[in-house]
Amino acid sequence: MYERKILLGFIHIHILHHAAEPSGIYGVEMMQELKSHGYTISPGTLYPILHAMKNDGVLTSKKRTHQGKQRILYFITPKGRQTLNRIKNFIKELSNEVMTSTSLKSKN
């Protein structure tokens, strides 16, 4: 499904956004956050994304005890913050164009 490919990009951006919070994010919290916005994502999809983003250098992680359980907390890196800031500019420009312009066919 082509829509899924596009949504995966939005999920990456959403992860960077929440990993930029001073408290970072846990995987389970991220799944709940995404669900609140209509994304249905399984742990088998989310955790490979988090690991790939960590390998790409946009996230870092720390093990913490949370409610008596060992959890991995993810934080944005300086490279991730630069990436997020650049992407925010693209999002702003693209959303303005997509949400306010008519289709190209109707302009001709």
Structural class: alpha+beta
The percentage of residues in β strands lies in 15-25%
The coarse overall form would be: globular
Return the domain count.
Answer: 1
Query: Distance N terminus to C terminus?
Result: 30 Å
Overall pLDDT, averaged?
89
Q: What sequence of helices (H) and strands (E) makes up the elements? A: HEHHEEHH
Q: Which CATH-level-2 architecture?
A: Orthogonal Bundle
How many strands?
3
* CATH fold topology: Arc Repressor Mutant, subunit A
Strand order of the largest sheet: 1-3-2
The name of the CATH superfamily reads: Winged helix-like DNA-binding domain superfamily/Winged helix DNA-binding domain
Spans of at least 5 consecutive residues whose pLDDT stays below 50 are: none
Number of helices: 5
In this structure, how is the largest beta sheet organized?
3 strands, antiparallel
Report on this model:
The chain is of the alpha+beta class and 108 residues long. The chain has helices spanning 2-19, 27-36, 43-55, 78-100, 104-107, and strands at 25-26, 59-66, 69-76. The chain has a single domain (2-107), classed as Arc Repressor Mutant, subunit A (Orthogonal Bundle). Helices cover 63% and strands 17% of the residues. The longest helix is centred in the last third of the chain and has 23 residues, at 78-100. The relative contact order is 0.14.
Q: What is this structure's SSE topology?
A:
Layout: H1 2-19, E1 25-26, H2 27-36, H3 43-55, E2 59-66, E3 69-76, H4 78-100, H5 104-107
Antiparallel strand pairs: 1-3, 2-3
